[in-house]
Every structure is written in C-alpha cells, then in structure tokens.
Amino acid sequence: MDSGGRRGYILVFLLLASLLSPPASAQQLLVSITILDGGLARVDYLIPAAGNISLTIPLIGEPDASYLVLVQDEEGMPLAYEINETLGVIEVACLNASEVRISYYTQALTYKRGKIWAVNFSSPYRVKLTLPPNSTVIYFSTVPEEVTVEGDALSFVFSPGTILVKYIFTYLAPLPEEKPPAQEITEEEVNATGEEVPQAYNFTQASNATLPEEREAAPTTGLHPDYLTLLAVAAILAAAVAAVLWLRRRSPPYYAMELSEEEVEILETLRRMGGGAFQSELQRALDMPTTSLWRRLRRLREKGLVVIEKRSGRNYVKLA
Hints:
Immunoglobulin-like, Arc Repressor Mutant, subunit A, 3 domains, 7-stranded mixed sheet, extended
C-alpha cells in the first residue's frame, strides 16, 4: 500500500475516534461559575480526558470575544480547540493529555432588573456557583445540594439542569468614627501658669473663655486686617475657578488636538454615556471591531484624554 493510502486510513481512523469518543460523565464533572460584581461570569471546566483523542464539550454561555479563552492540559500547555457557535460546543484535541482545563468569561448568564440581579443558565454538568461578596439570595429555582460560605461570598452546588438564582447586594453602613473628647482646662489653671490658651482647649464656663487682658485688647468693631486679606484671596480664587469652568463648558479640550474622526467619536460617546463605560458597552455603542477600538483607546490614553481601569476583570474607560 502506498503512502497516500496509509494517510487516508489514518485520517478516517482519527475521524471515527473523534465521533465515537464518549462525552465526559456529567456526574463526575463539576463546573465552577464565579459571578463578579459587574455581572461578568467566569466559567472553569476540569475534565478528565479518559484516553480520548478529542472531546466535544457543551458551553455554558457564549464566551465574550473581549477576553481570551484558555484551553490547557494538566501541565498548563495549550491545547488546540475550535468553538462551534451554532451548536454551542467547544471541540478540544486532547491527544496525550490526561485532563482538559477550560476557562473563559461570559456576559450571557446574568441580567439586572432594578436592584435585583439574576443568574440563569442550563448545564449538563453539576455546577458550583459562587456569587459576588455582600450578596443576599432572594430566590432559588432549584434547591442546591450544598451551601458554603467562602469569605464574604456564598457558593452553591447544583445538579445538572436549568438554574435560576436571584440576589441583591447588601452593604453594612460603617460605624461613625468616635472623636476624642476635647481637653478641658479651668480658668484657675490658666491664671496659675499665665500662658496663652490654645484653641483646642475649652473652658468649663463659656463666659470666661477669654482672659480679661484679651477682652480689653480685642477690637470692638470691624474685621481684622488678616481676615480682609483672606477674603480678598478667596474672592480671586473663586473668580479664577469660575473662569476655568466657563471655558471648559464652552468646548471640550480635545477639540484643539489633532485627533481622527474615530477618536473624536469615542470621546463624544463617552461624554454622552456619563463620562465612562465598560469597553464592551462602548464597543456596542460604536459598532467598532474590538481590535480597532482597543488600538484607538491606547492612543487616547497616551494623549492623556482617557483612563483605562480594571474593574471586576473588565476594562472600564473614562474621560481623564
């Protein structure tokens, strides 16, 4: 048999092995889903390869294109994979791997109505769901198998099926700081020392708050010259601040810079969105490819016009 025929048989064998490889047992798997403060969810799989050449694994939620999808073996080496969005599965080539580890972020599992957040998804596997810190559950569609507390976060283990959990955030108001009581000193102690009384001291009798010599030297009418100087300086500063604010209201500062039409559109969109938004929200508002938007955001950050922060694992962009 020639080499071409042998290659054909090998390809057919690999295809049949991929189609006939059994799916991972749903009872043996435990998928971890961690909900962040902004509603973004991180999904983590740990699947035994069980000697299979490839695995076809159902996805829980569509992976967000703004973040990387990590597919690795037990030693952290990357594995080849392909996501079938139509079927909602990920196909992983796991030859010579004993475990398959998958990690991705998705925004398709949560939504918000007023102050109530909801997590809603279907899973063929058992799921460990971890809610954000300081959250309180107000509704379960399915009674969880286990409930644990990890720090300030609640975790639940659910059986395979459709899961709906609703929760709200509850924050404890901080206790007011206790101020140390003011140190009191009597008039007799002042007369005994003859020293001037600091402003932090309080007399027990308000009528004797100043010494007789100080009362005679105090001016009876008008303001002290130092007060007049302070008032004049304050008036000048107030006028300068008002002028700066008036100039800023007339036109944004970036109109004087050399910016492209796309960069101006990004800044105007941020201004209409209240001065800040997540990168994914900004991308939907602009209908701009992720790579193009990120490249322009970096140029705007280098020019000092925007600030990019990490909030709950997501890029938050705001006007500088």
